[in-house]
Write a structure and sequence with these properties.
The chain is an alpha/beta fold. It is 32% helix and 17% strand. The longest helix is centred in the middle third of the chain and has 19 residues, at 179-197. The protein binds flavin-adenine dinucleotide. This is Amine oxidase domain-containing protein. It holds the Pfam family Amino_oxidase.
Length: 486
């Protein structure tokens, strides 16, 4: 997940004034679409402001959305969000108060795959010289690209910038026989951007480095203990009673053409009408369904923003074994298939990049997927993934005794129509046409009243992508209704 941060501060949530003249009356029925962090934060805030008629429609049979903790051993495996970006934000505060932050995570993390961990390259040997030469070239690049953001052409992609630098590096090296090794290292290096930003680096505009902003001076990412986001999810749901949440209730249409908003579910039109609805469906869901979800149709500006802002994917695989087969001091296993090196290395070997033992359970290896890999792996059955992953370990670590995992735990984010991927980013097209998260966030006002409001990570201008952006945006829209602020 993203590990960035600079100076701007995000929207404060302290709105303690009395409601404004246009604010919604306390008994107004309000609907919320989605029980992820944005939906739950909106509901909780509305309830604490005195609104008593709040209904959340959630399509799945659980709350949390892209926060998806599942019980495992004596803790929770996080199939979705896992880390907290920075400290100056309410999610960090909540986690700190709940005592679920890892004790030793105050340091800026160093997850550079080039410097850390095993390089598993099969029948090839990557010499220390080659590794050093590549590391010396690549390691300063992220800082260089960050410093380029905010000046010059922001529509350039990270992939484009890298490709220019890489060509220069190759010609300086004057060792054409090493190209396949450097290409393999490039694949690994690329994955560190793509797993952070959930974007193909050829579509990841430089503008992200200017705009993404946690408000912290250092970019840092905090991990939590084995309860993690389960504890945070429970906490933010505290004052939202279960009778306010309609599970298994997928909204297929929001009709705001009349005085009251009508909600249609898959099961049919809801008899109850609402004075306002807060929509928190993911950008991935809106990309697929925005044109049928709203009556009348959304404005052209909003649709263009939905169509052109990026929504990509990362993937997480939790491989469960009876006992660890990796040595106790293993930090990271980086998979490095070098073209032409290892016999019988199938194309699926290149889907895998980085694995590490899970922090709180010795029998679980956690894998990260990026680029095109999440969609490719989501299309495979668990048995196929077990075979592919065991094969790649055996080939790349040259050890045929590595066992198959007994279980694979994962969620198929790319194929689920309720998500359509993992989180948003500013694509090259959006940087070019000026599409912004603010355009998605702008409420639809009818006859002087905000009728349809938008929250969710892809409506936060600075901390999009994150649970932080989702949470703040939910509270923002609740406050908007309370203050009549539109
Ligand atoms: C694998 C993964 C790893 C991540 N890692 C991190 C991380 O480490 N740190 C971090 O900060 N963030 C991370 N994120 C991103 C973070 O999880 C999200 O930004 C955040 O949880 C989004 O919350 P939300 O409320 O905006 O949307 P969601 O969580 O998507 O909630 C929207 C809800 O709406 C429901 N819904 C959608 N359509 C409809 C409909 N038509 N009718 C009814 N209900 C509907 C969905 O089922 C969902 O429950 C990660 C995400 C993923 C998937």
């Amino acid at each position: 997940m993203p590990k960035r941060g600079n100076q701007k501060s995000f929207i404060g949530d302290a709105m303690r004034q009395a409601g404004g003249a246009r604010s919604l009356p306390k008994n107004a029925p309000i609907a919320i679409v989605g029980a992820g962090f944005a939906g739950l934060a909106a509901a909780s805030r509305l309830i604490s402001l005195g609104y008593n008629d709040v209904t959340i429609f959630e399509a799945t049979n659980r709350t949390g959305g892209r926060v998806y903790p599942i019980a495992f051993a004596d803790g929770y495996i996080q199939l979705g969000a896992e880390y907290i970006n920075g400290r100056k934000n309410p999610i960090y505060e909540i986690a700190r108060n709940l005592n679920v932050l890892e004790a030793d995570n105050d340091e800026e993390e160093d997850d550079d795959p080039l410097e850390n961990g095993i390089l598993a390259a099969g029948d090839c040997t990557v010499s220390q010289n080659d590794r050093n030469a590549f590391t010396e070239f690549a390691s300063p690049l992220m800082d260089k690209y960050e410093s380029m953001a905010g000046q010059g052409d922001q529509t350039r992609s990270i992939g484009q910038l890298y490709s220019q630098d890489y060509q220069r590096f190759l010609s300086n090296q004057r060792a054409t026989d090493k190209k396949s090794v450097y290409d393999a290292l490039t694949r690994l290096y690329r994955s560190s951007y793509e797993a952070e930003w959930s974007a193909d680096w050829n579509d990841l505009s430089l503008l992200n480095y200017d705009q993404f902003d946690t408000g912290d001076s250092e970019s840092e990412e905090h991990s939590m203990n084995k309860m993690g986001y389960k504890a945070v999810l429970d906490f933010i749901s505290t004052n939202v009673s279960r009778d306010k949440i309609k599970l298994n209730s997928r909204v297929t249409n929001i009709d705001y053409s009349g005085n009251e908003v009508k909600i249609r579910l898959e099961s049919g039109l809801q008899p109850k009408t609402f004075q306002a609805v807060i929509v928190t469906a993911s950008l991935g869901h809106l990309k697929k369904f925005a044109r049928s979800l709203f009556t009348p149709q959304l404005s052209r500006t909003k649709l263009t923003a939905i169509d052109t802002l990026g929504f990509g994917s990362i993937g997480k695989l939790f491989l469960v074994y009876n006992q660890p087969w990796w040595s106790q001091n293993t930090e990271t296993i980086n998979i490095l298939p070098v073209d032409g090196c290892t016999t019988n290395s199938p194309a699926t070997d290149k889907l895998f990049t980085t694995f590490h033992p899970m922090a709180w359970n010795n029998n679980v290896l956690q894998g990260w997927l990026s680029g095109s890999a999440p969609a490719a792996i989501d299309a495979m059955s668990d048995d196929q993934v077990k075979t592919a992953v065991t094969g790649v370990f055996r080939r790349m670590l040259r050890n045929n005794t590595i066992p198959e995992p007994t279980r694979i735990l994962r969620n198929k984010w790319t194929t689920d129509p309720l998500f359509g991927g993992t989180y948003s980013y500013i694509s090259v097209a959006a940087a070019k046409n000026g599409a912004s998260f603010d355009q998605i966030a702008t409420p639809i006002v009818v006859n002087g009243q905000a009728k349809v409001l938008f929250a969710g990570e892809a409506t936060h201008p600075d901390v999009y992508q994150t649970t932080i952006g989702a949470y703040i945006s939910g509270r923002r829209e609740a406050d908007r209704l309370f203050l009549g602020n539109w």
